[in-house]
Amino acid sequence: MEVEVKLRLKDASAHKQVTTLLSPFHVKTLHQHNLFFDTPTSSLSSQRAVLRLRFFDKDARCIVSLKAKPTLVDGVSRVEEDEEELDPVAAKDCVENPAKLYDIDSRVVRRAREEFGLENGVVLVCLGGFENVREVYDWRGLKLEVDETKYAFGISYEVECETENPEEAKRVLEEFLNENGIVYVYSEMTKFGAFRAGKLPQ
């Protein structure tokens, strides 16, 4: 179970303010390209599951993940997640020809097939996806990820923090944002949800 605090920033100015304030604690920048797969009849989505290939830094690395049964309440996200590394060259072939996902020796893909009815022969399609620039910080004992997510229909900004104590992490984060006059709201929709809706969260 992955548990994260998710706070959506109002705009690019708020994002700039956060990254400037956190700059002394910066660890790394990740350039992510997220692509999603499902059947033409949305077999996975209808069962509240998501199959994703995430490429890093111009396809130097790839992780496949299966997420299921997500909840997002008061800025705290909980989701069942399983993930593993894939050979990025083989994964790239799967973007062009999603049927090749079935040929990859992947625990995660096997789980998707067995638990969500994606048996051999069931057609998979690539739904597309979005780019994400993630700034990572070690701050006050928390690992913060500040995202700039670029969809075809606009850009959104979000602060995420994976934690075993979400209420305390949320309290510390909110205190920091409020003290610095940074406008935010609790995220009410996942990035994938926004992508599928085809519009930015209001």
Commentary on this structure:
The protein is an alpha+beta fold and 202 residues long. The chain has one domain: Hypothetical Protein Pfu-838710-001. Helix content is 25%, strand content 45%. It has helices spanning 12-22, 88-96, 107-116, 166-179, 191-197; strands at 2-9, 26-38, 49-56, 61-73, 76-86, 125-139, 142-151, 154-162, 184-186. Strands 1-5-4-3-2-6-7-8 form an eight-stranded antiparallel β-barrel, surrounded by five helices. The longest helix is centred in the last third of the chain and has 14 residues, at 166-179. 28% of the residues are buried. The mean pLDDT is 95.
Task: Name its key features.
single chain, Hypothetical Protein Pfu-838710-001, 202 residues, alpha+beta, 8-stranded antiparallel barrel
Shape: elongated
Enter the CATH topology name.
Hypothetical Protein Pfu-838710-001
Q: Can you tell me the CATH superfamily?
A: Hypothetical Protein Pfu-838710-001
Gyration radius, to the nearest Å? 17 Å
**Main β-sheet description:** 8 strands, antiparallel, barrel
Number of helices: 5
Total strands: the figure is 9
Organism: Acer yangbiense
Pfam families: CYTH
Protein name: CYTH domain-containing protein
Domain CYTH: 1-192
Write the layout of secondary structure elements.
Layout: E1 2-9, H1 12-22, E2 26-38, E3 49-56, E4 61-73, E5 76-86, H2 88-96, H3 107-116, E6 125-139, E7 142-151, E8 154-162, H4 166-179, E9 184-186, H5 191-197
Domain CYTH: 1-192
Organism: Acer yangbiense
Pfam families: CYTH (PF01928)
